[in-house]
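Hey L., structure's done. Input below.
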Amino acid sequence: DLRASASMASVAMAAALRMPRVLSSIDAPRNLRALYAVLASFCMAGLLLAMARSSLARDDGLTGALWLGLALAVAFFGVNTTGLMLMDQARGLPVRDPQDALADALRSGHRVLLALLGCMALAGLAVLGLAGLLWATRLPVVGAPLLALVLPLGVLLLGGIAFALVILVGPLAGPAVWAGQRSRGVLGFLRGRLRHGLPETALLMATVYLLVALATAAVSFVVVSGSQLLAGLAILGAGVELPPRQLLAGVMGLGPRSMGASGVPLQGGHLGLAALIGGGVVFALALVLPTLVWLRGCCAVYLALTEPE
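Output:
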């Protein structure tokens, strides 16, 4: 008990010493270049997704799949471009230009994919092994005792894999590449943290999740309260002839197609379309600001674990 308490105390102390570096990730929206990169990439990906939906609505599956693949590629390289600029900010270096960051992301993005595929392959092998054991429980003699052993093992194994993916692999594979690691180095870093530093990593990543939740709550409050007040001012004060639901549709991420699917026709002509576009800009900003905090926090956690102050 004393050893366990001392170990937990040392983990908590180490995490506390590195916490200020992680808390500084709340200033991510100040990186205007990163904000521009992630906003542009998300908007482009949204347009490509809309084109994919249009193609699928016309039963053109091949073209829809092509647009969908392009949307995923734009989002992936956009996130990597943003991550490179946020890594510069986290390191205290001059933030590179968006075009330079995009070129670097195109050269190094495959490293992130290879590292993630390697981790997923290892997880898949573990799941296949567990599936084999579950199949063996159908045997007449050893089935029942084997199930008694496999059940707790499977719960712990699958839960541990999910925990490692959420806390370690997903958040830190990208920052490791953005810091200059190759795919093999990323896998070595992840293996080392999994074996020797998972509790500390979990504490630091829990802080990042908390910061993202607070940023999302703050942005949501600003958007909801501001949109309601603006709707009242526009309709009651300025006499804008638009229904409140349509005036606020863009803020909630709805477009003309989504409104039509929900049974609400687009009214107001050019004025109604302009309201959707303006509200869409607000929705995009509300989406990307927590994303910036998330990416910046992941960079800070990686640096705190590899470059302790």
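The chain has a mean pLDDT of 83. The CA atoms of residues 137 and 144 lie 6 Å apart.

-- N.
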